Amino acid sequence: MSTRPLKTRMNFETMSQAEVPQGRNGKHKTIVTRILSDLDRAGKGTALKIPLEELTESKEKVRSALNRATRKANRTVATASDANFLYVWTE
Predict the structure, then answer these.
(1) What is the residue range of 32's domain?
(2) Which of 4, 9, 11, 90 fits a 20 to 30 Å CA distance from 56?
(3) Cβ burial 16-41 (10 Å sphere, 16+ → b, else e)
(4) In contact, 87 and 49? CB cutoff 8 Å
(5) Average pLDDT per 10 consecutive residues for the chain, totaling 91 residues
């Protein structure tokens, strides 16, 4: 009788760890990066006026993504909106 363990079939494929993609680029990365870049260049007391029709996602989703990014970067921004625009400024 053999003492070798039986090789059972794996449930998932394997790959080299070096080939595993690192980092995550969410679908809101482009707009959030653009907003943060403009905020860096905007003067104190200035708000960005972003047309809602140019957003590919809802303003709520963009606000949420912006909130996650600014908390991660230890930045404080505020937002407001009306029927046509999303306003963003540094507090």
Answers:
(1) 27-90
(2) 90
(3) eeeeeeeeeeeebeebbeebbeebee
(4) yes
(5) 72 83 77 94 92 92 94 94 96 89
Report residue 36 as tokens. Answer: 């943060």
Could you tell me if 89 and 42 are in contact, meaning their C-beta atoms sit under 8 angstroms apart? yes
Domain tally, the chain? 1
How remote is the C-alpha of 63 from its chain's centroid?
10
Report the sign of the C-alpha dihedral through residues 59, 65, 67, 69, in that order: negative
Nearest to 33, CA basis, from 78, 83, 68: 68
Residue 83 within any structural domain of the chain: yes
Alpha carbons within 13 angstroms on the beta-carbon side of residue 12 total: 2
Supply the pTM of this predicted model: 0.72
